[in-house]
Amino acid sequence: ERLKNDFQFVDVGRKDPNKLAASTRKHQFVEIYENFGETEAASQSHRCLECGNPYCEWKCPVHNFIPNWLKLVSEGNVLAAAELSHQTNSLPEVCGRVCPQDRLCEGACTLNDGFGAVTIGSAEKYITDTALAMGWRPDMSKVKWTDKKVAVIGAGPAGLACADVLVRNGVKPVVYDRYPEIGGLLTFGIPEFKLEKSVMTRRREVFEGMGIEFRLNCEIGKDVSIETLLQEYDAVFMGMGTYNYMKGGFPGEELPGVYDALPYLISNVNRRLDYEKNPEDFIDMKGQRVVVLGGGDTAMDCNRTAIRQQAKSVTCAYRRDEANMPGSRKEVENAKEEGVKFLFNRQPVAIIGEDKVEGVKVVQTTLGEPDENGRRRPEVIPGSEEVLPADAVLIAFGFRPSPAEWFDEQKIEIDNGGRVIAREEQSYPFQTGNPKIFAGGDMVRGSDLVVTAIAEGRKAADGILDYLEV
Ligand code: FAD
Ligand code: SF4
């Protein structure tokens, strides 16, 4: 039996869940990967070698007990696997869908060297989706309730993860968000072909069942002041994300027909979820020649949303080569399959047009010496200018922190880049300059990943529990 187990990875190759055909999915805002069935999940999980050194666990930012829950799945014990996976992750079904596994857990899998990594992300998604559908809910029966309560600003992954750990330790979290639904960028950013919105509505029901309270459509600093929160609660956690859009700094960015990525994606979500206040807010790419500038996850999501809106053509221009793109490999492949045309080593220098955008002027680049982050700097090739014709341009250059007006008076310090200073290595992890206020996620790290926001929200909750002496 043991021998058979050890060589499972030879007999059974890596198999990702089936993907909808590109010709079908490019017209639909639905997740493109199907679910594993029970047999497939078990045989794929059984491929895990249970190697003595689970690098996957170390590479996973929340340090999931991966080999342990893979073993439970291979034995058909999905409820025990769900219980275990929730000990380290507050949103396992989300991470299973949107983590760049090739750079994290699966990239570190021993089998990644030739045999094909274990499909860790798909197994994680399978565990939670299946357990929740079977009626499994986190066991709160042993929680000893305290009289403490904490305000959480932001219902994104950082805030939700913080609230999850707090409530499991008997502290009442009340989560405020200016949006009408929980999730932060999981709902108002990441499109449905990567993460269907029903995943977050189901998770909201689970969290509410655990005792987390949500106050939505409520902006702190406008509808409720930070002073009120500090008076009414024992501590405050901020997980407010980064919402300043980076600009290219070249001429023509203000022309009609040029849009920032996030308002574009949000307008599509608002239309589809019926949150749209004014039909004029909807940005429609139907029939247009679209140029997307950027090479990260946001750019990929813009590309693939424009395809689904039936753009006439979608061209993505990126200033480095394909190997140096920051976006997940898997999503770049998906975009290519769906008909996005990529132009690598192209740097935009101007958006041109009379009264509205008519094209993007780009120059070709080659990669030079590494910069301070170790990434090779693009250098312009003289005389390589060309114009990409465009009716619409989407700018996806990333996000910069957006510090709130009240940071100064509340003694919340920020660094030169605008990120809130709240460190892990201090007596109360993730405490800010104001002892009663903690912070985590994109607003502390700069824009990053769902799973790193979850990791920080959870560690900050531990810091808050220590601070409250719970
Ligand atoms: P957010 O998710 O931004 O949540 C912050 C919340 O705080 C928001 O809901 C906001 O409304 C609320 N808020 C802010 N200020 C206030 C206030 N004053 N009062 C009340 N509420 C407030 N990561 C991945 O791992 N995989 C991906 O595939 C991926 N794709 C992405 C695609 C796009 C288009 C974008 C933009 C990001 C993507 N990311 C992806 C990154 C990931 O979404 C973020 O790193 C993560 O959501 C950060 O979590 P957070 O909780 O810190 O902030
Ligand atoms: Fe992999 Fe992300 Fe799951 Fe960790 S949370 S095991 S990195 S998919």
From TrEMBL:
> What does the record give as cofactor?
[4Fe-4S] cluster
What keywords sit in the KW lines? 4Fe-4S, Amino-acid biosynthesis, Glutamate biosynthesis, Iron, Iron-sulfur, Metal-binding, NADP, Oxidoreductase
EC no.? 1.4.1.13
Name of the protein described by the UniProt record: Glutamate synthase [NADPH] small chain
Gene Ontology annotations of biological process type: glutamate biosynthetic process
| Pfam family, any one | Pyr_redox_2
Function, as annotated: Catalyzes the conversion of L-glutamine and 2-oxoglutarate into two molecules of L-glutamate.
Q: Which residues cross the membrane?
A: none
Q: Name one GO molecular function term.
A: metal ion binding
| Pathway per the UniProt entry | Energy metabolism; nitrogen metabolism; Nitrogen metabolism; Amino-acid biosynthesis; L-glutamate biosynthesis via GLT pathway; L-glutamate from 2-oxoglutarate and L-glutamine (NADP(+) route): step 1/1
Domain Dihydroprymidine dehydrogenase, which positions? 25-135
Looking up NCBIfam families in the UniProt record yields: gltD_gamma_fam (TIGR01318)
**Residues in FAD/NAD(P)-binding domain copies:** 148-457
Reaction(s) catalysed by this chain's protein: 2 L-glutamate + NADP(+) = L-glutamine + 2-oxoglutarate + NADPH + H(+)
